[in-house]
Every structure is written in C-alpha cells, then in structure tokens.
C-alpha cells in the first residue's frame, strides 16, 4: 500500500513538473551539487507546488520570506506572483542565495525580489517599530511577526513535523534532533492556542503549517 501511494505521488509530481518552469528543475539540481549536506534546508518540490498554487489562489502581490538558502522557494514564489509583485527576502548571508541567483535571472523575476542581507529579527523589528508596512503583506513564509501580515493574509511555517520526530517518544529520536523537536512542539502548541489565526497543518514535505490572520 505504501509503495503504491509513493508511486502515485511520483507520477503526479513528474506530470506536474513537466508543466512547471524548467528553471525550477535546474535550480534543484544546482542546490544538490553545491550544498549536498544542506540540501534538506530546501523546500521539497511538492511543497513548492502547493505554495505556488496557494499564492495564485490568494492573488498575493506582496510577500515576505525569512531564510532564503539557495532560493528555491523564493523562485517558486516569484514565478507564481504577478509581474508587479514585490517579495522581501531576508537572509543573514548571501553566498547560498548567489548560487541560485542566475536561475532567478534566467526566469526573468529578479525585479520582483528585494533581497536584504541581515538578521531577520533586526529588519522585522525595525519595520514593525516604524509601522510603515504594518498589515501590508499578503503572505509571509516563516514570518515571526503578525503585525506585518494583513488580516486575511497567510503565514506559512516550514518543517513543522520535524521528519516525524514530533510524534515519536524520546528514545526513538536521535540526540541531534531532540532539541529541534522540543522547539517544534513549543511552536505548534503556541500556534494552536493563538486565537488570532486559524491554521492547517499539511503533511507535505516535512510539514507545512498555514496560518490565516483573523484579526
């Protein structure tokens, strides 16, 4: 049964990827070659396709992304948004982002992206304090500050199932993953109790939690 489901998913993904911009496929290959040990930081292809569809359904035009890595999810977002959209992408270093930048340029979407090399909390705290962009973002990927997202906007948290560790007893979880598991459980509990949002946890990739701002 499990093998049948995996095969079905593979067929669906291959069919869908044939319809997707070829630069995304090239982008995945680029990441795997340049950052083999860190490639798990990339958004899985099925999750990228889901986010792309969500952005189109929302008709989002202004988004925020914290943590860019080589830019696979950033490229996915940029391809999904209209030509006059703006993406604020914040990452503490630029080296990995520059690996994917040629593919972003090849796709013709660099004009949509405002890349900020900085600590994300510094940038967000500054923008929140100024109040200039409060409630102006349609969508935020791994956003920590609610005020910047408009009512009805969506925050997306990646990796919220921790490769299944959130449902495993301690003796079944490797030591390096245990600290991360604790943080994920705290995050999931916080989001579940936050009455400012309604949420859905999607078991795609390594877990994707979507939060729609209510007030």
From TrEMBL:
Record Gene3D superfamilies: Vaccinia Virus protein VP39
Keyword Transmembrane helix: no
Pfam families the UniProt entry points to: Methyltransf_3
Gene Ontology MF terms in the entry: metal ion binding; O-methyltransferase activity; S-adenosylmethionine-dependent methyltransferase activity
Keywords, in A-Z order: Metal-binding, Methyltransferase, S-adenosyl-L-methionine, Transferase
Biological process annotations from GO: methylation
Family the UniProt entry places it in: Belongs to the class I-like SAM-binding methyltransferase superfamily. Cation-dependent O-methyltransferase family.
Function (record text): Methylates caffeoyl-CoA to feruloyl-CoA and 5-hydroxyferuloyl-CoA to sinapoyl-CoA. Plays a role in the synthesis of feruloylated polysaccharides. Involved in the reinforcement of the plant cell wall. Also involved in the responding to wounding or pathogen challenge by the increased formation of cell wall-bound ferulic acid polymers.
Protein name per Swiss-Prot or TrEMBL: Flavonoid 3',5'-methyltransferase-like
